[in-house]
Amino acid sequence: MSTIRLSTRLLLCTRRTSIYLSNASSIGNRAIASAWPTAAAAVRCAPASTRRTFGTASSSRLDSSKPDPASSTSKTRAQLDAEERKLLHEYEKIATHTLEELAIRFDDIGEELGLDDYDVEYANGVLTVSMGEKGTYVINKQPPNKQIWISSPVSGPERFDYDYAKKEWFCRHTKETLGTLLNREISAAFGGEFAMPIS
């Protein structure tokens, strides 16, 4: 047999083998594909207790060991709410004390000077001091911001935060305390030294 014929036969055998393997693979794939709906249907038709064995039960066992994010979040929010209520209560106590002290001091100044067109009114967290031609002060609490707001006939509106370390109300813009501002303006308005006790 010649070398050419031998090579040709080997090539044909190789091709037939490849075709056979390819056909076998296709048949196997079609068999798997055709069997898959039947298997899926069997799982769907199986009782619920049986279906849970395909991974759901083990997954639930693993998930049960994890902390509940919603529970952790709710606890954190509860703690934050408690802290906020505590801060607001402390603010209310300090701000109310400050405004009551100012109301008493402003009333004393009116009596000392014997002014007729002078009036002090304090109600619902708002202190109003009418000084006739010298203008009117309105000083009030601002609970949402935990501040004391003031409307001055001299310097205009301003806001004051409480410094718990120094125990005083201060302005973030001017760095001046509420006591210093009122001391300066009231003393200048009436030509004397009028200390304004604020704590």
Low-confidence stretches: 1-13, 19-29, 31-46, 48-62
SSE-based structural type:
alpha+beta
* Chain-averaged pLDDT: 76
Share of residues in strands: 15-25%
Largest sheet: 6 strands, antiparallel
User: What is the count of DSSP helices, taking H or I runs of 4+ residues?
Assistant: 5
How does the SSE layout of this entry go?
Elements (H helix, E strand, L loop, with lengths): L2 H43 L2 H4 L4 H9 L4 H45 L5 E5 L2 E5 L5 E7 L4 E6 L3 E8 L4 E3 L7 H13 L9
Antiparallel strand pairs: 1-2, 2-3, 3-4, 4-5, 5-6
What does this protein structure show overall?
It is a single chain. This protein has helices spanning 3-45, 48-51, 56-64, 69-113, 178-190; strands at 119-123, 126-130, 136-142, 147-152, 156-163, 168-170. It is an alpha+beta fold and 199 residues long. It has a six-stranded antiparallel sheet with strand order 1-2-3-4-5-6, with helices on one face. A hairpin with a 4-residue loop joins strand 5 and strand 6 (168-170). The longest helix has 45 residues, at 69-113. The protein is elongated, with a radius of gyration of 43 Å.
